[in-house]
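Journal club side-thread
Mid-discussion, someone asked how the predicted structure for our own chain would compare to the paper's figures. Pasting it here so we can look after the session.
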Amino acid sequence: MTATVRNMRTLQRSRIIERPRLLTLLDESTARVRTLFAAAGYGKTTLAEQWVTRGGRRSAWYTARSSSVDVAALALGVARSASTIVEGCESRLREHMRAISAAAGNVAVLAEILSEDLAEWPREAWLVIDDYQEIVGASQAEAFVADLLASCPLQLLLTTRQRPSWVTARSILYGDVFEINQTALAMDNQEAAEVLADWSGMSASGLVALANGWPAVIGLASVSSAEIESDDTVPESLYRFFAEEVFDALGDEVRDGLALLAVAPVMERELAAELLGDGQAESICAAALEVGILVERDERLELHPLARSFLEERGVPPVCAEATATCLAHYKARRDWGAAFDVVSKRDAVSELEALLAEALDDLLETARLPTVESWCAFAAKSGIGGPLFSLARAETALRQGRHVQAQAHAEAAAVDGKLAFRALSVAGRAAHLASREEEGLALYQRAESAATDGRERRAALWDQVICAVELDLPETSLMLNELSVGVSTSDPREFIRAATCRLIFDMRSGTLDLGDSDLAWELLPVLGEPLIQTGFESIYANALALAARYTDALEVANTLLHTAQKYRLDFARPYGLVSAAMGQAGLRQWNIAADYLDEAAALARDTRNHYAELFAFAARLRLLTQQGLHRVALALPLPDVPETVPAVGAEVTASRALALAAADRLDEARATLSSVESSPAVESIVLSAAVRAITSLKLDDARTASWVSNLEEKAFATGAVDLLVTAYRAVPELLVVLLRRGGGQRRMDLVRRVGDHELLRPLGAAGWRDDEVKSSEVV
C-alpha cells in the first residue's frame, strides 16, 4: 500500500453525520423488532442512538456484555433498563430471584414475570439491546429475550454482529422482524463524501470502493492526514493503516493513556481520572473524542471496538498491573462483578480471583446468578486455583440446584477454613436437612454453633437445630424452643415471625394448636415485606387455621399465600396454599371447589417432585371424600409413589385412611392400620386415632361407646384440631347425635352452628332443631 500525507501528523475533527436513508428505513418499518446486523465499525450503535431520539420516541438502553450470558444477570439488567420507561418493573423479578435461588433454571418464568410488569409498554417506547452478539449462542439468554417478546407488547431495537437465533429468514420475509444488514449499513458515495469533506472527490470515491463502504475505515480516514493511492489493499489493512496514522499523530502521551484505558472493560470519566489522573484524563479523553476513537454515551466512555482491538494488539505500558488493580477496586466498589471478572480473566490477574469471589459471592447468590458462580469456579480450576472458598461457592450453587449430597460434601470440605467454618457447616446442615437426613443435619448445625463467631451466628445455628429437633421428635425440643423464644417480641418482626413459625410447627407435631402468637405474626407480615418468609409462615398458619375449624380465616390466609406465590412465582409454596384452601372449602361444605383445589395441588406437587406436598394433598383428599360419605371412593385411591422420607405427613395419611376404613365398616382393617400411628404425637394422628376408636365402638354397639366418643371430643378440643372432629361426625353422622346428647355440650353446639352442620340432625330424628331450642345438655 502507498499513501501521500496532506499535512504532517495533523488530525481532523471526527464528523458524526446523520444517515437519512437508514433512518427512513427504520421509520417506514412496522415491525415490532428491528435489528442492525453487521460487523464492528458499521455505525450500528450511533444509528440506534439517532433513531430512538427522533419522532417523539423514548428508549430504554441495555448494553449486553460477556456476563449477560447468565440469564439472571441479563433479566435483571433488562428490567433495570426498562424501569426508565415502566417504573419499578424490576422489583418483582428481584424478589423472585431472592426467593428462588435457582431462578435462572426456569427462563420462561423470568420472562413471564417481567412481561406482566411490561404489559402496558408505551407505543412510543423502545428497548434497545446494544451488542446483542454477546449472548448469541447462549440458549437460555436468547430464550429469555424471545419469550419476553412473545408475551408482552415490547418494541425492540437490536444492534448485533451476529443474527439472533430466534430471527429466522421466515420472520424477516413476513415482516415480523425488520433487518438492516451490513450491505445497507455500508456508506454510499454521498454519505462518505460528507465524512471525507477534505478529500478530493477522486480519492474519496476510491477509498469508498476499497473499503467496501466500511464506516470505521472511512471515519478514521477522515481524521487522518494520509490518502490512499494504490488499489491493491483490503478493508482490514486499510483500517490498520489509518489507525496507525491516527494513533501516531496523537502522540505518545495520548497513545499510552488510551492503552491504559483499554484495560477497563467498562469506562466512566471517574475511572479514567483514577487511571490517568484528573488533568491527563481530561486532555487524553478530549483528544480521543475529537477523532472518534472514544465515544461518550450518557455517563460512559466507550472505546471503539476496533480501536480497542488495535490498542490491545500493540500492548500496554508497563504500569498495566497498577491499572488492573485500579480497575478492580473501582468495579468492586460499584458491585460490577462482570467487569471485575473480565479484568481478572483477561489481564493476567488470576491471583485476584479468590478475593473477588469473597466480595461478590453473596450478591451473586442473592440475584440467582448461579451460572456466573459456576463459571468463576470452573475458571479457577482451569487456572490451577482452589481452596475452601471455591468449595463453599460450589456448595452454595449445588444446594440451590437441589444437588444436596454434592452440596454437603463441598461444604464440609470448606469447613476446614476457620473463617468460613460457620457458614460452611450451616450450608452442609441445610443440605442434609433438605435431603431428610435430620440426624446429620442436627450434628452439622451443632458444629456450626461451636464455630459461631458472634451471638447472631450462634442464634441462627440454634434455630436450625430446633427445626431438625422438631422433625426428629426429640424430647428436648420444647426446652430449646422456649430458650430461644425468651426476649422475642413484635419489635423485631422477622425474629417474631420465625419464632411463631417454629412454635406452630412444633405445636402441631406435639399435639397442641395454640394460635395466639401466630395471629400476631399474621398482623406483622405486611411490616416485614419478605415474600419468602411470608409464604413460609402462611403455609403453616393456613393449615393450622383449617385444623382449628376457622375456615374463613384459613381461606383468607391461603388466598394471600397463593397470591404472593403467584406474584413472585414461588411455585414450591402453591401446593400448601391450595391444600389449606381445600380444607377451608371442605369445612364450609363446598365439596367441588375443594376437590378442584386438591387436583391442582397434587399436580403441582408431582411436577415439582415435592413428595411432602403430594402426601399432604392426598391425606386431605381422603378426608374430603370420607366426610362426604364416599368411603369406597376414598379407599380406592392409589397411594402416591413417593420415598419414605416424610414420616409426619405419612402418619397423617395412614390415620386418614384408617378413618375411611372405619366409616366403611371395615373395622378390623381400620384398627390394624391405626396401630402403626397411634404413638405419633402429631395433632392429626391424635384426633383421627380417637375418631377411629369412637366409630369402631359405635358400629359394634359397644357399651363403652359414650366413653370413646367423649375421648374423641376431649382430644379434638384439647389439641385444637376440631376440624378433624367435624370430619369424623360428617363421615359417621351418628357420632353427632351421641355427642350432642352428652351433658355440658355448649362448645359442641357452638361448633356445629359455626360450621353449619345442624342439617345433619334432621335425618337422625332431630327435625325442627333450632338454635333457640337448644339447651346446654340436650337436643330437643
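Post-session note: The beta strands are 3-5, 33-37, 58-63, 125-130, 156-160, 177-180, 226-228, 267-268, 294-297, 300-303.
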